[in-house]
């Protein structure tokens, strides 16, 4: 009688999705008498959702054996899939593969069992990770056909989701997003189990982040919030993964304090033994928020933690090094990351950073190449935010090449897109580019208004480095004499020639140059010159040494001779 009452409470808790209480009562019932198959399945599901990896594996193994012994091959194959997923989340890939192979052998004896489709899901995911979207789509399609034959809503939803993921990587983006939306509608209608819901929600938001599909990500994240918040005491690995993507969206839309809280919580949840292979993504996201705030020490520590958990730390770490004035290190890091990244969507994020870094290094030609590749990717995927990111990159390059008209033509539409997408930080950075172009065209009033608007946004967000670059500007935060020295450096003059031109000692010129490097956060004459051209501080004519009074007011001109 007591066992029956305990089981009743466990089942009732499971129906309410009170996962922690479910585990407590099922553990008590199991200690009194071994659980039946269906109760083992409920207990295992709750343990998995809570991130209790070791317990979940033990329960799923018991369920698998029980289903095989009872002749429930379909249920055993489904159980084997969840065993694979649980073990893979723990980083035990050989163990996970062994269970998949065992289930495949079982399925060979039951060729008419449509639940064989579950075994195709990891294969499709593997093909996607391996850069074979065509193979992934074909495999996911076979899984969906089997799912529809047996009427399994979880399998239908998961297979549809993978079809959409594959279509996106095939650069058939609209078709892919339609399939992904279809899978999400099934979740919203309550047609899939909580485990599939967590898996598909997180995967979908990740794709939206990769595509910069901001409105769609925002809409479905609201649904994700309701799903996660609707799980009493839901604090396991799956919620940690979801929190990473929630943090990314909050960062993009300007709620940086909440984004940081979500990222920290994700770090905590993903370092508790379940999902540790994904903890690196949480630490990377936390590092990005610290970097944007100008918190170099915490940012570097978060990036190092991300690396310890196996995540690539680019482009964030390279941009951190750039902010620290270590331009050569930043350039080497971004070159390495690009060389290792064939996926075009992943390259898009790297290329945007590469433009900024290579311009700081004075390599305008390399920046132009990166911007051109980014434009190709934006055209292929057709996403507005990718076009906006491309516009900012092209504007920065045009400024460095002395073409403020082209810079303005690229930066202004980019700002409008970011504004419409409610991405305040990106919009403000675009306005800074607009301001530099206006200044280079001689419209100081327009430049000042653009910079004031951008500064207000940076202040509100807590983007200290970006704000400092504006509030300390007085033309780059430099004194009038330092502006003169910088303009002559950009014109290609040596310290000796600058000293003759300005009637100063070489020692004084060297001191001015040191101050310029410090204020601009650069480490070389080449980087300082690139800054001058990008910000309208270069001279349009190279004065002859000693020809006092022949200088032209700084504005964007041609790049300095190499």
UniProtKB/TrEMBL annotation:
Biological process (GO), any one: regulation of DNA-templated transcription
Domain HTH luxR-type: 471-536
Entries under InterPro entries matching the protein: Sig_transdc_resp-reg_C-effctor, TPR-like_helical_dom_sf, Tscrpt_reg_LuxR_C, WH-like_DNA-bd_sf
GO molecular function (one): DNA binding
Stated name of the protein: Helix-turn-helix transcriptional regulator
Organism: Phytohabitans houttuyneae
């Amino acid at each position: 009688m007591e066992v029956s009452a305990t089981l009743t409470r466990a089942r009732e808790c499971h129906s309410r999705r009170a996962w922690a209480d479910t585990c407590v009562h099922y553990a008590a019932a199991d200690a009194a008498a071994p659980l039946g198959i269906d109760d083992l399945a409920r207990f295992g599901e709750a343990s998995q959702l809570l991130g209790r990896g070791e317990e979940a594996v033990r329960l799923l193994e018991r369920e698998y054996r029980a289903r095989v012994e009872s002749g429930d091959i379909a249920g055993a194959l489904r159980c084997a899939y969840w065993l694979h997923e649980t073990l893979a989340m723990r980083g035990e890939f050989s163990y996970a593969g062994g269970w998949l192979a065992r289930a495949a052998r079982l399925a060979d004896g039951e060729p008419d069992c449509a639940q064989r489709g579950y075994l195709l899901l990891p294969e499709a995911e593997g093909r996607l990770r391996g850069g074979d979207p065509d193979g992934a789509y074909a495999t996911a399609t076979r899984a969906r056909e089997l799912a529809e034959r047996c009427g399994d809503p979880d399998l239908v939803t998961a297979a549809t989701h993978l079809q959409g993921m594959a279509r996106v990587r095939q650069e058939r983006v609209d078709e892919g997003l339609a399939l992904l939306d279809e899978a999400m509608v099934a979740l919203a209608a309550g047609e899939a189990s909580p485990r599939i819901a967590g898996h598909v929600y997180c995967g979908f938001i990740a794709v939206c982040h990769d595509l910069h599909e901001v409105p769609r990500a925002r809409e479905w994240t609201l649904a994700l919030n309701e799903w996660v918040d609707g799980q009493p005491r839901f604090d396991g690995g799956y919620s940690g993964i979801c929190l990473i993507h929630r943090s990314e969206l909050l960062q993009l839309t300007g709620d940086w304090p909440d984004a940081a809280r979500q990222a920290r919580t994700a770090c905590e949840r993903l370092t508790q033994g379940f999902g540790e292979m994904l903890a690196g993504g949480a630490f990377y996201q936390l590092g990005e928020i610290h970097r944007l705030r100008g918190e170099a020490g915490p940012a570097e520590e978060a990036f190092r933690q991300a690396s310890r958990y196996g995540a690539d730390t680019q482009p964030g770490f390279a941009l951190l090094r750039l902010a620290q004035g270590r331009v050569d290190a930043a350039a080497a890091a971004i070159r390495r990351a690009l060389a290792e990244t064939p996926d075009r969507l992943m390259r898009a994020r790297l290329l945007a950073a590469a433009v900024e870094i290579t311009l700081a290094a004075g390599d305008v030609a390399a920046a132009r190449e990166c911007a051109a590749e980014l434009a190709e990717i934006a055209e292929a995927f057709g996403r507005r935010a990718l076009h906006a990111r491309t516009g900012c990159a092209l504007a920065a390059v045009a400024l460095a090449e002395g073409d403020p008209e082209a810079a303005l033509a690229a930066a202004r539409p980019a700002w409008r897109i970011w504004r419409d997408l409610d991405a305040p930080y990106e919009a403000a950075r675009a306005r800074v580019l607009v301001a530099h172009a206006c200044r280079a065209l001689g419209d100081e009033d327009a430049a000042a208004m653009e910079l004031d608007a951008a500064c207000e946004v940076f202040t509100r967000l807590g983007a200290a480095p970006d704000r400092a670059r504006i509030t300390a500007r007085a033309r780059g935060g430099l004194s009038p004499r330092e502006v003169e020295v910088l303009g002559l450096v950009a014109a290609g003059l040596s310290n000796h020639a600058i000293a003759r031109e300005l009637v100063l000692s070489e020692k004084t010129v060297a001191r001015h140059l040191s101050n310029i490097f410090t204020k601009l956060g650069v480490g070389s004459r080449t980087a300082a010159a690139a800054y001058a051209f990008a910000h309208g501080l270069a001279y349009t004519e190279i004065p002859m040494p000693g020809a006092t009074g022949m200088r032209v007011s700084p504005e964007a001109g041609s790049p300095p001779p190499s």
